[in-house]
Amino acid sequence: MTVSVMVVDDHPMWREGVARDLQERGFEIVATAGDAASAVRIAKAVRPNVVLMDLNLGELSGVDATLMITSELPDTRVLVLSASGEHDDVLQAVKAGASGYLVKSASSEELVEAVTRTAAGDAVFTAGLAGLVLGEYRRMAAAPDDSEDKPQLTDRETEVLRLVAKGLTARQIANRLVISHRTVENHVQSTLRKLQLHNRVELARYAIEHGLDAEPEAEK
Amino acid sequence: MPKEPAERVTKVIDDPATPLWRGTIALRIVTFLFAAANVIANQSGYIQPDLAWITLGVMALWSVFTSRAYSSTWGRRWPLVLVDLALTCGLMSLSPLIMSDHQLLTLNVPLITTIWACVPAVALGALGGPTAGFAGGLTVGLSTYLSKGVPSLDLLRDVVLLAGAGMVVGMASATARRSAVLLAQALRAEAATAERERLARSIHDSVLQVLARVRKRGMEVGGEAAELAKLAGEQEVALRNLVAAAPTDSTVDGEIDLRPGLQLLATPRIQVSTPATQVMFPATAAGELTSLVREALSNVDKHAGEDARAWVLLEDLGEEIVLSVRDDGPGIPEGRIASAAAEGRMGIEKSIKGRVESLGGTLELQTGPGEGTEWEVRVFRKGAAR
């Protein structure tokens, strides 16, 4: 089955370029969008397997779009394709439900592999993202508020994330820790899932506290 | 939008003690009215009522003049405030000529200047801080003693009140100035950040997209175009990091964020990973750590070959900072580091080990043929402050 992809980027030249690249490699480009609002609207209509999401979209950000898409379309995965410098945005997007992150300077091969793996349900971790996620867990652990449901990394997960952040591939990590390749993938995924779950809980709690839990009017 | 904070900055810098000067002026007017009432009430007993009225007239003129002078910055200067103090003490010293000894010593009638005399002490505090205010109050108190000629408990109370008031106003003015400086700093940083974000957005929307596209297409076309693509790619990464790196404004206690300095080291072959939040560290030690990483990376270039990639990871464990530098080159054969040191080529030995030791940190090196090289530096936060 071909993987259906939607490309969201506010820059037409980049958007068309990436779409063409992926088309040439056998992916089906079902839609493109230049801003977050239309990205959410179109994604709901075409239900792509993978959304390639830029974060720098103007008013409504790629983070917001990621949250809306992943919460309404459980079968659609979002892969963030963004500039290497946007640290905090990338972290927010991943917490909002994106299943991976790739820098725009990645090669076409890396992009193809990342989209394939995202479609298969794997988390796509760059070293940069691993560094951000590690930092986020440590920030939460050090934060003064002591809610009991703060997510924590197991020792093994920390070990795996650190190795990812140091540039080791999943296979190299499996060799070094003498565990299976699949186990490495599971550890990595679980670090993301815990973060996303925590984020959802926090958002829901915030919404209830502020009386925002009424049915959202996404389309006006 | 970025214009607004800049305007606020100049406004704040104007003179943070302005409210204190306004208070000084109000005090002068109120105390003058009191002095006038005092002359009216006691003039029948004066030996020289004419001189009393003349003195009161001078006080009136001086009050009007200083009120105007102190309401703008040109009058808030040492010469004028000192003249104010001298004139006040001078007028006060006319009291024995105006008043009868009976009034002065037995009836305890206020001196001709009465509480009007406290104003220079307050003005000195507003201008020069607690010490100047204290000294001003003490001077006025001493002048009161000289005018009365005999010490008394009442006199002592006046001196304490005068010196104390001058000092308190001085402390208030010093605090106001300090907070104004901090506020101006914060506003400047905010303006700089806003401007930087605006630049970053516009660069992201234009130059970076084009560079990224050139790199991608060039690679696909190959040949000479690939050469150009490589150059475009290098510039792309450099520019991205430049716009991403936050301004390295140091905090009041001399700490800076470690991340921007490290992020500037990133190239297409070097990945720098950091937390999303600031990693604050003493400025000098942070500079040492950054140049240490640079050294390790140049070592990668020299020994691991042109195609080797490298990863830098910064971790903040609260009590300590962990910096890792790893490459996927062939690794350093056993004994190479030691022999290099023996030959006096000290590159790694001195630069890296020495720096880590001077920061009170530990260094771990993991390497082996075919395994790449990995440096892990751990520095304690407290130890680094030495």
TrEMBL record, chain A:
Pfam families: GerE, Response_reg
Domain Response regulatory, first and last residues per copy: 4-119
List of residues that carry 4-aspartylphosphate: 54
Record's protein name: Response regulator
Transport keyword on record: no
Keyword check for Phosphoprotein: yes
SMART domains: HTH_LUXR (SM00421), REC (SM00448)
Record-annotated HTH luxR-type domain positions: 146-211
Key words of the record: DNA-binding, Phosphoprotein
